[in-house]
Amino acid sequence: MTGTDDWDGHLARAADLGPVHPTLLRHLALPLLRQLESSLRDGVVTRRPVLALNGPVGAGKTSLGRALERLAALGGLRLTVVSIDDLYLPAGERRARLAGNPFGVARVPPGSHDLPLLLEALATWRAGGTLRLPRFDKTLAGGEGERNGWREVPAEALVIEGWLMGCQALGPQVLDERLGSGAGLEELGESQRRWLPRWDRHLAAYGKLWAACDGLWLLRPERWSLPRRWRFQAEARQRRAGGGWLNGRQLEAMVRATLHSLPPALYQDPLLGPSRSGIGSGIPLEGGVILDGRRRAHPLGIQLSSAASASSAIG
After folding, report:
1. Phi, psi for residue 261 in degrees, rounded to 5
2. Is residue 16 included in any domain, yes or no?
């Protein structure tokens, strides 16, 4: 590492950071990199740092991850950004676990991921070993996706991104109360409501992963109607480039699975709550941004109240 806080200079000199809006780099990428550098340089953490990045489908997490890695390299920081999607269970196991779900999907909801494999990989890496993780190819298995080899990366810091990172299970009693009130659940069909307890039980297993993370960063949509628009726009671009693989029905199912297996009013909104001090997900909220319709980033603190008031609009 450079040992100096010159991240603004690295950003100014960087080239080919992909389709990431400059405001997202300024308000999220640079503060996140400063946190990692400070941790490693000043010994704030006693283990290799892992940060969680929560963002909805279509928010640009993959592009942001590539930009983070490139910027980190300019500062001498060996950073790897991985998607929790790379940790999907093999296709057969996912089909069995998600059989009969109301979205008709074979991945996405809680329970789709191989948490023991990820936790073992993190433990080995933090003990001084190489980080070894599977590669996941979403184009295989008829669009259901399947593992396609492994990768080993020399990293001193890690960011794990995913749409459910940090979300906390409610437990049967609290979930029953929320289901009874119906608040924030207006868009859910009856079958989706019936499956919520199952998703909540699966989510409880992710607590061990949250405990392994040192901080949480948020990519928060201004409105919960935006992720669907973003994802469909992304798929259209992929098709024009010859890389799309999901038809409209499959894509709609995937988007609905992210918004309705863990309804934002129950699982995403608490990440913004006033009690974010190690309570809830167990990961301290370090920062984040609000994304408007053009995916321009605004500092999280500035628009927190307005975003919270609009968060229940899932449609």
Report:
1. -75, -35
2. yes
